[in-house]
Amino acid sequence: MNVLDIGGSLVFWLSVPEITRNKCSIHTLNLPGVLENLPPEEESLRKTVNMITGDARDLSMFADQSFDIVICNSVIEHVGNWLDMRKAANEARRVGKRGWFQAPAFEFPLEQHFLLPFIHWLADPLQVCIIRLFRPAFKAMSVDDQYMAVYHTRPLTRAQFSALLPDTDRLSERLLFPKSHVAIW
Description:
This protein is α/β, with parallel strands linked by helices. Helices cover 31% and strands 28% of the residues. The strands form two sheets. The chain has a seven-stranded mixed sheet. Helix 5 packs across helix 7. The radius of gyration is 17 Å and the shape is globular. The two termini are 16 Å apart.
């Protein structure tokens, strides 16, 4: 099976039994620098996982339907604005015969990246001010990096997720509220 993992983490592939990994040709696609200085257990996967530098919004290096399955786990909310998300979703659908997409749910009261309640329901300037108060590492970042971190962290509503990935089977993982949305094709 030929697999493309958009924004893929090698930790994820360590959780897959080796016997199963060995039956797959696994390709992870990440922005430059993401997979540098890996811990030894992840570094060992370099021999079995093809790590590609690229951008989820432009997969023109791959032909249509060139992967048996495309995986995109909690990445779509980081690619930029709505049009960037649309491009990434369309590209994944184009190159993958089948796919599994997941994104954090906007409806969930705890923002899953900053681990603060309700923060993602506020305007960007308020998010930045509040995150600064509770996250020292965030406060140490430049103002530009703080705003970019908030801007590139956009949990999606079920309706938004459905609009990005029409004609797919969708479900919501729940923990009292929808926690994340999943699309399968």
